[in-house]
What we know:
This protein has helices at about 20-80, 85-105, 110-120, 125-155. About 5% of the residues are buried. With about 190 residues, the chain is an all-alpha fold. Helix 1 (about 20-80) packs across helix 3 (about 110-120) and helix 3 crosses helix 4 (about 125-155).
Amino acid sequence: xxxxxxxxxxxxxxxxxxxxxxxxxxxxxxxxxxxxxxxxxxxxxxxxxxxxxxxxxxxxxxxxxxxxxxxxxxxxxxxxxxxxxxxxxxxxxxxxxxxxxxxxxxxxxxxxxxxxxxxxxxxxxxxxxxxxxxxxxxxxxxxxxxxxxxxxxxxxxxxxxxxxxxxxxxxxxxxxxxxxxxxxxxxx
Length: 188
């Protein structure tokens, strides 16, 4: 049996003891759970940072390729005497090259910090971007579901529908005849 100390309201130094140290065990378990949660969060953060770093480097290389392609389009336009579109292509190529350089030289932490800072500085732009992405996703899903619906309707694996079968092949139902009997009429 365990005992409890009594607490007198007039004794400020007295405390109540827990049976068998249950409070200490609960506190220790809570501390372990919190430590594991911090470790899991740290591992998740490291994975996200590494993934952003890898993907941003790949995107930076692709951006440099795109910038090179846009520059060659600008040169082609310039050779045809279209100086204004060539100038616009050169400016676009320069911007894309700057973005590619930023993505290649920045690590995951720097990119995540910049994205967070942009979100804090311009929340309306982030919300507008989310709306645009949502609309684009809904249009994509609508278009793909329409295509899937039409594919499903014309699939040869489905059972035949009466609209797909030649009407002359289907037997026509014969009219149903019901025999009529007359009952004698009772006399009054």
